[in-house]
Amino acid sequence: MNDTFTDKLSDGSIIHVRPINRSDVERERAFVDGLSPESKHFRFLGGIGHLSESQLLRFCDIDLKHEMAFVALAKGKAGETQVGVARYVADPDNDEAEIAISVADKFAGKGLDKLLLDHLIKYARDFGVTRLYSVELAANAGIKKLMRESGFRSARDPADATQLIYSLELSS
Hints:
alpha+beta, Aminopeptidase, 8-stranded mixed β-sheet
């Protein structure tokens, strides 16, 4: 899949969205390293500050059969910079898929998270995924708002009271 979408954010910024690929390793590294400590905490549930080489390769070399990741790119003086990513990893039957979304701090509040999530939902639906879910820290107000606006239901994680599980049933 080599489709690239061009979208406009609420501030007028032009963003290119396309599937991630193996050549994005350095972009992904720079993107994650550039996230604020709070954004990293919310994205990785407090567990990661810097991605290893193997994690970066894993995140960029995806199996299009059971996973997808869309990167958002913005043009700058030094070329295109990654400013967001939304991904899912499905179970072996492609019934359920866990999602994750990250947006560069300077692009927060401009609708990029919703744009990426919408691309991910459409792709998942087209590939027969019937349910998307995400495990998030309950303190993450941004994700709470995004998920509510996108029709996800939320429930407390029975294994961890500091987390919420968001889910969205996809219908054909």
